[in-house]
Design goal:
The protein is α/β, with parallel strands linked by helices and 240 residues long. The chain has helices spanning 13-17, 31-44, 58-68, 96-99, 103-110, 123-145, 157-167, 221-224, and strands at residues 3-8, 49-54, 78-79, 150-155, 185-190, 195-202. Helices cover 33% and strands 14% of the residues.
Length: 240
């Protein structure tokens, strides 16, 4: 049961101008977004990452680059189009203020499971392929690096929100209640019994505690898949 760190890309030029970028090429991090990506890389520098996977879009690859280059050991990121942005179809490239006037906007806000973008994909399809991709990579990381490995996936706001909704056991129609900012970090651990959501939309703080403790200090395997009654004692750190 590895731990996946979900990172949204830093602020892009489209984010800064209020445009729905979608899958349009040539959308890069702006100056603020680059600083955010550097900060994420520094937050994760103390985490021993076993793997890194990113959406193929430029803003995610640029964010992932700042993460991998700060790892103590060389780490080459892979790309997965299943972690790419939602295919907003005819909506992409348009200002959000104009899209808010569309009838479909209300459906996206109130019942996203019923929303299909004209010329694009449905939000349900987006969630299905994103969750499947994360679980597939999680299983691969477990097989290659062990069940205590930690890895990172860099993706997009709606995609990460849909992954978190699934991990929380929340219907997609409620996923707009979840907030995922640019360059934020969310953490999920999948187990045989259930996913555990360790954190969502975090912006600051050292994350080195996500690196697993020595085997002699780990809980028995069976207990690690259980929820701690009463909330538990928190993560085991070197100072505990």
């Amino acid at each position: 049961m590895p731990t996946v760190i979900l990172v949204r890309h830093g602020r892009s030029t489209a984010n800064a101008t209020g445009v729905l970028a979608g899958r349009q090429p040539g959308v890069h991090l702006d100056e603020t977004g680059l600083r955010q990506a550097v900060a994420v890389g520094e937050r994760l520098a103390g985490v021993r990452l076993a793997a890194a996977v990113t959406s193929p879009l430029e803003r995610c690859r640029e964010t992932c680059r700042e993460i991998t280059r700060r790892q103590a050991s060389p780490l080459r990121a892979g790309t997965d189009k299943q972690l790419s942005e939602c295919d907003y179809g005819d909506w992409q490239g348009r200002p959000l203020k104009d899209l808010a006037k569309e009838r479909l906007w209300t459906t996206v806000q109130a019942q996203p499971s019923a929303a299909t973008f004209p010329g694009g994909e449905s939000m349900r399809a987006m969630q299905d392929r994103a969750v499947a991709a994360v679980r597939r990579h999680d299983a691969r990381v477990a097989a290659e690096h062990g069940e205590d490995a930690v890895w990172v996936a860099v993706s997009h706001g709606d995609v990460i929100k849909s992954i978190l909704a699934d991990a929380l056991g929340t219907h997609l129609d409620l996923f707009q209640r979840i907030h995922v900012d640019p360059a934020s970090v969310s953490v999920v651990r999948y187990t045989e019994s259930r996913p555990f959501v360790i954190g969502t939309n975090t912006h600051a703080g050292d994350l080195a505690w996500l690196t697993p403790p020595p085997k002699s200090r780990r809980a028995p395997r069976g207990r690690r898949a259980d929820a701690e009654v009463g909330g538990g004692a928190g993560p085991q750190t070197d100072g505990s």
